[in-house]
Amino acid sequence: MRTRTLVVAGYGMAGHRLVEEMRTGNRGDADGTWRIVVLAEEPRPAYDRVALSSLLSGASARDLTLAGPDVLGDPRVEVHLHSPVTGIDRTAGTVTCAKGRVFGYDALVLATGSRPFVPPVPGRELPGCFVYRTVEDIDAIRAAAQPGRDAVVVGGGLLGLEAAGGLRQLGMRPHVVEMAPWLMAQQIDAGGGRVLAEAIARLGVRVHCSTVLRGIEPGANGRAARVTLDDGTVVDAPLVVFSAGVRPRDELADPAALARAERGGFLVDQWCRTADERVWAIGECAAVEGRCHGLAAPGYRMAETVARQLLGREGDAFAGADASARLKLLGVDVAGFGDAHARTGGSIEYVREDRRAGTYAKVVLDRDGRTLLGGVLAGDTRAYPVLRALTGRELTASPDTLLTGA
Amino acid sequence: MKTDVVVVGGGPAAHRLAARLVQYGHRGTVTVIGAEDNAPYNRALLGSVLDGTLSPGQLTLPALPSTVRLLTGTRVRTIDRARHTVRLDDGRELTYDVLVLATGARPRLPWVPGLVTARGQLADGVRTVRTATDCHPLPAGPVTVLGGGILGVESALRLRRAGHEVTLVHREHALMERYFDAGACAVLDDLLAERGVAVQLGRRATEFMPGKLVLDDGQVVAAGTLLLCTGVEPETAPARACELAVRDGVVVDDRLRTSDPHIHAIGDCAEHAGAVGATVTGAWEQADALARILTGTNRPFSPSPQVLRPRIADFDAVALTPASAKGIEEAEETISLMDRAGGRYAWLALRGGRIQRGVVIGPAVAAVGFLHERAAVLPEDRLALLTGSDGTYAEDGVLPDDAVVCHCNNVTHAALRQAWTGGAHDPAALARATRATTGCGSCTGVVRELCATLGSPPQAQGGAS
Fold it and tell me: Domains in chain A and their CATH numbers?
């Protein structure tokens, strides 16, 4: 019976889920108990990053907290804030954090998350340009907002639309610039994108698709003042938010001689394990069999997979995750699930669109027309939970019935 | 009142009009003047003569009643509106009370060097599909079909089936683009590829030489025969000559009258409500309407919804359009099915649950056509309508046990049921026991419904969906 140490590098949503899983599972651990050391970069414990935008509509950072007193008060858990891991010595089995402290580990789980990707456009460093990732970013945006003025959001994905909604809450007039031909191109198809764009245009959000930023010019005060798009559009905007995707935080890989995936991320197998049997990676920094996942739910599955291994339990490997999502963006319900883009060979697409109601629904079926593979919903997502639950299975009723909730 | 009717033209529209006039008890004479030597025949089936499926004689329409006077191989030279007479090219003069123009249309010839000889004839090897005279079986060898409208596509597939090497050249970027949308075009492209017809889209012909056609990108395609399917133009010369109002076709009103109240026009030469007819069924409908008008019914002509069905073996397709411009109201709803691998496609615009217009390819053609014709409300299971399935589904509406209900926390239907059995009888208790609903919250409705189902008496269970 010996106490072992688990070091978790990073305290975001995936890291937090790992801590939770370890705490609930620890009691029955035959080999003894785990002491958990969490090394966080941010100045606050784990919070619900998915709900970040609620800070712009009245919520406080406290409302987003995931790590309650039960975790922080657990004697087996040590949380160190402002303490990002700066180096790993795999031979010695130690990590060093920014404050210079060294922690020994029996198991190390990298949960360093990701950083916003800022496209290399001239002017991106100007004051008035922001990213959208942390509580501090949101605070800064709120402080810089100028009601009545235009603002530009770079990226028409999930986060970009949330940012646009937030800026609208702050009284600004958001423009969304998206490189793809339609919004949320990862989750939904062209038809859903059209319905979404029409609905948010009615709310005063201007959508510019199939174009990119050419540059940001400063005004007399040296702050961002004018944004030019590649299609020639010019927007006088004192505020620019970059939400054009993320890149995994994998800078610890090279010094520690850990492998990186081709497109970044700590390369791990389907058990989320690196080539070092004592080192795992989970969440957005992990490239599971080469592929990174940028949503919360896959990160949770990875955390659960690793917790089971550490606790010596049977369980499945990480089986991958789709980009399924159901959101309310600027009051518009949107969802994409499973094979939303009908990429499965021989698949069938069935679409219902109600122009009066502003709703769009597509279901993707396999070639026999009976098994649900995925779909897209816009304007009305009430059918999402049932359709998502049926994804990969035979339909239990007509899609018309399931979609209309009859 | 006894009226003598003279019909100029001897095609399917003239034939139908004459037959119906007799059937509806017309009093007075009926004379039909056909320019072709043959008795009236069904022009729409000429494609079957091209590939040798039918002989020209098999296209002949039923003989007209003996009271109808049929002149063939005769043309009208002049129409004298003041004297109500027509003069024929053999010098005869006929008097009419009512004159009907059913002069049809002639093939539109594209301007391509080498197509027409110095004497104004089509060059050797160049053919059209309009009259029985130009429609005899093609010689063996490669055929190029110019024009990718319905006739061009039908002809290309027929000739390919008959063993010819076929190239289809179309100047637009999609085949049958006047009737098909992008999805239907994609399925049609697949069909042509599968059946081995080479298709050249977005290409014009720049020169015809014996045995080959040169395209505007410099390609040369084999054309032992060049079949022109480049559309038709209404035959309006007789109408122009006697100064009737003519736009694209001879302009007619809701009583199928031209600008001269004693002269009517029907079929491919007539322009009603801004549209020139294009189908034999449309021509027949006008013939029938005019026969009723001339025999005393006062009902104005109102075209039925247009239904266009290409004649392609083992390929059911239909384009449904509203009868007139007035029918093209903004659709409220659209439904569509794309099954490219299975060769099925549908796009329907609906209003009040009824079909306004659309395109269907595949086994659903018959059922959809039936609903369109009757302006009936679509059934609730529209997917089954479009796929032609029997509409039965697995599990009879119940969520399978291993279906994941809460994806954030990976909670299955079975796990929720087990928690219920363990005493968690409301959503909050189920959330505590399984974590379901505590992630993004989107499964809350399903969990609530599950509580309602499990909490209701046993006989009420099982049917919920």
Answer: 4-115+246-310 (3.50.50.60), 129-242 (3.50.50.60), 325-403 (3.30.390.30)
